[in-house]
Amino acid sequence: MGSHLTKLEEAKLEKTTRVEIPDDEEVEDWEERNKADYERNKQFEKLRVETIAMRKKMEKMQLAFRKNWVQIDEIEWDCSKLIETIEVNVVEVQGVWDEEEEILKNSVAV
Predict the structure, then answer these.
(1) pLDDT of residue 30
(2) pLDDT digits (tens, 9 = 90+) for 17-39
(3) Rounded CA Rg of the chain
(4) What is the dihedral angle through the alpha carbons of 100, 104, 109, 110, rounded to the nearest 10 degrees?
(5) DSSP string, 24-52
(6) Which domain of life is it from (predicted)?
(7) Which residues of 67-94 are buried (b: 16+ CB within 10 A; e: fewer)?
(8) First CA to last CA distance, the chain
(9) Spans of the chain below 70 pLDDT
């Protein structure tokens, strides 16, 4: 049995597809649009890369700052310990001076 196409199917097959051929101005417009899109995408990519680089740099700076902050805290703690030690030494020296002064007074009085 042979297959027969209906007239509608034949008409669809015979129907030509209309192809529009753009004139030169339309082609130039599209080329300009494509070029503008390309340049915009290129600029966007450049800005994205710069933003990522800046964010990484900021993160490194924050880490360095935190590290320095910890070191500053340690230095402050060391300084407070030194101050306490100095205060204790001053009290001890003052006590020794007081004793020596008392000894001198007693020796002069005798």
Answers:
(1) 75
(2) 565 666 666 667 778 888 888 99
(3) 46
(4) 100
(5) HHHHHHHHHHHHHHHHHHHHHHHHHHHHH
(6) Eukaryota
(7) eeeeeeeeeeeeeeeeeeeeeeeeeeee
(8) 151
(9) 1-5, 9-27, 109-110
